[in-house]
Known about the structure:
Blueprint: H1 2-39, H2 42-49, H3 54-61, H4 70-74, H5 80-86, H6 94-99, E1 130-137, E2 145-152, E3 157-160, E4 163-165, H7 169-172, E5 174-178, E6 189-193, E7 199-204, H8 211-215, E8 220-221, H9 238-247, H10 258-266, H11 276-294, H12 301-317, E9 350-351, E10 370-373, H13 401-404, H14 414-417
Antiparallel strand pairs: 1-2, 2-10, 3-4, 5-6, 5-8, 6-7, 7-9
Amino acid sequence: MRTLMRGRLLFFGSFTAMALTLLGVAVFGAVGIAGWEYTNSNAFCATMCHNVHPEEIASHQVNVHARVNCVECHMGRNSTLHLMALKPTHAKELWGMIAGYERPITSGTLRPSREACEGCHLPTAEHRDGVDVKVHYASDDKSTESRTKIVLHTGMEAIREGYSKGIHWHVKNEVRFVSPDPQRREIPWVEVVKADGSKVTYTDAETKLKPDELAALKPRAMACYDCHNSIGHPFPNPEKTVDEAIRTGRIDRSLPNVKARAVALVGKLGDITGETEARQAQVDKLVAEAAAKAATPVDKKAAEDKFNKSMGEILMAASFREKGFSWKSFPNHTGHADTPGCFRCHDGKHFNDKGEAIRLQCTLCHAMPEVMREDGKGTVASLVPAKAGEKQPESHQRPNFMHTHADDVGPTCEECHGTPLKRGKQGGNFCANPACHGRTWPGLNMVEPPKKAATAVELPKKS
């Protein structure tokens, strides 16, 4: 009997120990999984790690990628084991956060596009042309509206053997480049790998870097986010945000000089700094003082209240906690309106050893802009070849065509671009398109053609 009791006790003891062990493993596993999930959550990234980036967090929450978690871009869509191996590589940032450091403005841990962007955006998918309409309001009494319609060549169109055009040409073709700047504002050297495996390199003829300095820079393959760098948490030009607010009715255009008033407030953004509460107080005071000076008529009180509310929101969204930072601190390389963007390479001054430039031709990426002004004056209609199927003249295929096209103007141009052709910037005809002329493009000198190097372009030793 004693032996039987002892056996039962041993059995129940072993069973209890095994059950407790399994329970401990289950609890430990559940805690581990919950902890792993939390470290991959936006809450962890926003509060535990990246509380030094409050503006990026706020921008991400209202952006088109708001439902894409931080780790899906910064660590990629990889297997759990792969992510576990990658996570320790971010630990190098911990000491800076603990000790305190200058606020970083560029992420050095983004995964390749194959692991991040292409998890949703299949590169082999067919992309078709899209239409973008940019609405702008002038700073006159009536805040006059103008609309610029652009057909974007988002896809990739084959023109002839060995050459194609379209924004996503960069997806199909291998492009490498170097940049001395973490934000890649400057690209002094580019290499294109052709379909047959041959390589063509281009160097900025005006770069201040010497060949050995270029050679010391590590080439990188062009990724989606080298152009779409602000797609996760962009900081748009607040003046464009004002235009959008007027277009959507958040700001009533019936208020006199409403665009000019908004621009004046935007111009004082540099004075707004500090934590959220402090910035909100500064914004409220700034808007109130401006409203008092405006002396808006009583019958416009509702419109004035809406204007003040909207401007308060715009100023808060465009202000930064730390002094010295603004939306300009975070360049958007998509397009070329506020920063060089496309013109970092397509500026007409990146030459290969044959003296040929990377193509500077507007119609590679979009059709010529169609400008529609509210009063009708200065409108520039969409212009197409006079004959169906007519091809562009050979002069249009020159790599540096935009720098030299004015030299080719003649009677034959009117066959495609309408008549009469008169140079200017007030609209009314093709050669006076205000969307192109009479404005300065960042990173591009359209006044003087680029100076070619006196000798063959010297290329970096590394490739």
